[in-house]
Amino acid sequence: MSLSSSLQDVQIDDSIQLEQHSSILTIWLNRPESRNAMSLSMVQSLQVVFTAIQDDLSIRAVVLRGKGRHFCAGGDIKDMAAIRMQAASAGNNQAYVDFNRTFGALIEQVDTAPQTVVAVLEGAVLGGGFGLACVSDVAIAHVDAQFGLPETGLGILPAQIAPFVVKRVGLTQARRLALLGSRFKGQMALNVGLVHQIAQDDTDLDAQLAEVTQQIKRCAPKASRATKALLHRTLNEALSPLLDDAARQFADAVASEEGVEGTMAFIQKRHPNWFNGE
């Protein structure tokens, strides 16, 4: 299937590839020679794509995957070397600050994307790749995927991903994982709550992804977007006013075209009109 109209004119480089089938957009991290290490250009290309699809209701889900059987091995060391030269030339560390914060902005953007974000985790899932996994709505991992926060072993900090790691696995586990910098595989990732499902082999991984995307298609597009936004608000807003607003949103949803169609489909024992089964 061709790309949605919102993506027809996006300016991205070959560090990522886009593939769309029906309402599911797959973003492939495409630097297999470096285990899909995140360069600045990759980060910027991802930002462009997520900005372009922000209001595109035809894209129901975004699947993040890595080419070459690796998800993402973290930041690109070559970029760091170039930034070191910029910092030396400027006589200050602002280039490092800007580079690191740009990646944090991407993580925030993926975290709050209105689409359902599915991470398919194989091979290296380290550093920044670990952070991306933490902001997915659904994470499916190969049992042999290698997870880790190696930053402290390199003399640096997991600066931008730290808050998202804590939200995902809790402070106690985040402290252990970040301060030891140890590597672990899919089963432990499942045990600590980093991922939701583990696959035993490639066939199982693809089957689980197919089932997840089918489940996403069964849910109403606008209701899914509103639900994700509401869930995010629960972390930051006072409870009583939040529930008041949620009640108003519920009432609007019941009376909406989606609400009427969903109710009728349930009564008539059929799929709602937003589910095409493709």
TrEMBL record:
One of its GO terms (molecular function) is isomerase activity. Coiled coil: none annotated. Gene3D superfamilies: 2-enoyl-CoA Hydratase, Chain A, domain 1 (3.90.226.10), Lyase 2-enoyl-coa Hydratase, Chain A, domain 2 (1.10.12.10). One of its GO terms (biological process) is isoprenoid catabolic process. InterPro entries: ClpP/crotonase-like_dom_sf, Enoyl-CoA_hydra/iso, Enoyl-CoA_hydra_C, Enoyl-CoA_Hydratase/Isomerase. It comes from the Bacteria. PANTHER family: ENOYL-COA HYDRATASE, POLYKETIDE BIOSYNTHESIS ENOYL-COA HYDRATASE PKSH-RELATED. Belongs to the enoyl-CoA hydratase/isomerase family. This is Enoyl-CoA hydratase/isomerase family protein. It comes from Acinetobacter defluvii.
